[in-house]
Design a protein that fits this description.
Strand 5 (136-141), helix 6 (160-179) and strand 6 form a beta-alpha-beta unit. This protein has 16 helices and twelve strands. By secondary structure, the protein is α/β, with parallel strands linked by helices. It folds into two domains: 32-376, Divalent-metal-dependent TIM barrel enzymes (TIM Barrel, Alpha-Beta Barrel); 381-434, no CATH class. The structure holds D-xylose and nickel (II) ion (2 copies). The site of D-xylose (XLS) has 9 residues, from loops.
């Protein structure tokens, strides 16, 4: 394989004072934090699509990266080159996991049959490389948004033939993910929404979305796929109105189809921002609803209303994110997938390394900060104090079965309960967070 990056030795932890730009200054995989190593806490993954498939195009201009495999006339040979580069990237970065869409790893060909055969052929290559390198698949997913057949939706398409086609595509992709030992299977419904209500039957489309998800869950059990199905919420883009808008709206769908024990969330920072939330809000909500699964790590530009997918670099934000991940109990099958792309001016292969290294270091700093905040205990103590009155038997009873509205009302009158406002201590907590 011709050399792609300028270095071939794996990047190592050299500490904060290292002068080597391709070293980890904070991410020390074997360092223990709150009883687990950083590697176990963070479970990083490299994604295929932004790292190897995107050529640097934007809506106003074409490719800037000029990667050799984008200029290979034989699409299967290009797909093989990408497997080499993926494993070289994982080896150099010392990252254990990768993620893909079926269409990222293999060319579509002229029919679904050809596509499936191509995906299977490349999966065989991936399997061999995984066996010799100890690298693992965090999740696979089917691309049901790029081809024009999906322009009006995937499972929520007005045309039942598209629904059926999606079933065939997901079946194969889930089979392949299972064969490769994938730890989760993701569904991001980029086209599962609509553009205008004047040509759309919402009720019909929602029914299709729920049924499709149930079919996928049934099939997962049938083949003995152990990991969760993960839904990745996003409020818009490419759809104008998206059915899987955010964690809260997906929870509604899961509850109405009885799927809340089989399906979890893959939460992405940029999508949370587009939905008007913070990343930590979505994580905390998913965790409190029992559906926290995995993360797509990136950063949305706050000035623009689309998915800029920048590498996450903001340590204070990542500290709040890591706090919620730790409070959620950490990852089980999930991890932190770099659904992030270098900017289109970052045209050197090494820019891919700089992006990952800097973001991994930023996450490691977030983890270390979060651990300090937890070990210090002052923030938690302040928050616990706000809720402390709920610990009395009388107040606890209000949330139990048996409590009645009129019974509570009677107690208010009898005891002359008059709420006394207390400070929320926001600035005090903000100061504590800044002073770790
Ligand atoms: C797009 C999504 C996509 C999913 C996988 O906005 O983030 O990349 O992660 O289909
Ligand atoms: Ni994503
Ligand atoms: Ni995204």
């Amino acid at each position: 394989m011709p050399k792609f990056y300028s270095i071939s030795e794996p990047i190592k932890y050299e500490g904060p004072n290292s002068a080597n730009d391709l070293s980890y200054r904070w991410y020390n995989p074997d360092q223990k934090v709150l009883g687990k190593t950083m590697r176990e806490h963070l479970r990083f993954a490299v994604c295929y699509w932004h790292t190897l498939c995107w050529p640097g195009a934007d809506p106003f201009g074409g490719e800037t990266f000029m990667r050799p495999w984008h200029h290979d006339a034989d699409p299967m040979s290009a797909a093989k080159t990408k497997t080499d580069i993926m494993f070289e990237t994982l080896r150099i970065l010392d990252i254990d996991y990768f993620t893909f869409h079926d269409l990222d790893i293999a060319p579509e060909g002229n029919s679904l049959k050809e596509f499936n055969a191509n995906v299977s052929a490349i999966a065989k290559i991936l399997e061999k490389k995984m066996a010799t390198s100890n690298k693992k698949l965090l999740w696979g997913t089917a691309n049901m948004f790029s081809n024009r057949r999906f322009m009006a939706g995937a499972a929520t398409n007005p045309d039942p033939d598209v629904f059926a086609y999606c079933a065939a595509q997901v079946k194969h992709c889930l089979d392949v993910t299972h064969d490769l030992g994938g730890e989760n299977y993701v569904m991001w419904g980029g086209r599962e929404g609509y553009e205008t209500l004047i040509n759309t039957k919402i009720g019909q489309e929602l029914k299709q979305a729920g049924r499709f998800l149930s079919l996928v869950v049934d099939y997962k059990h049938k083949i003995g796929f152990k990991g969760p199905i993960l839904i990745e919420p996003k409020p818009k883009e490419p759809s104008t109105h998206q059915y899987d808008y955010d964690v809260a709206s997906i929870y509604g769908l899961l509850k109405s189809y009885g799927l809340e024990n089989d399906v979890k969330m893959n939460i992405e920072q940029n999508h949370a921002i587009l939905a008007g939330h913070t990343f930590e809000h979505e994580i905390a909500l998913a965790s409190s609803l029992g559906i926290f699964g995995s993360l797509d790590l990136n950063r949305g530009g706050y000035q623009v209303g689309w998915d800029t997918d920048q590498f996450a670099m903001n340590v204070p934000e990542l500290t709040l994110m890591m706090l919620e991940v730790i409070k959620a109990g950490g990852f089980t099958t999930g991890g932190m997938n770099f659904d992030a792309k270098i900017r289109r001016q970052s045209i050197d292969p090494d820019d891919l390394l700089y992006g990952h290294v800097a973001s991994m270091d930023a996450c490691a700093r977030g983890l270390l900060n979060a651990a300090k905040i937890i070990e210090d205990g002052k923030v938690a103590a302040t928050v616990d104090k706000r809720y402390a009155k709920w610990n009395t038997a009388q107040n606890k009873a209000m949330l139990e079965k048996g409590a009645t509205l009129d019974g509570i009302a009677a107690r208010v009158h009898k005891e002359g309960i008059e709420p006394q406002p207390v400070s929320g201590r926001q600035e005090y907590i903000e100061g504590l967070l800044n002073n770790v």
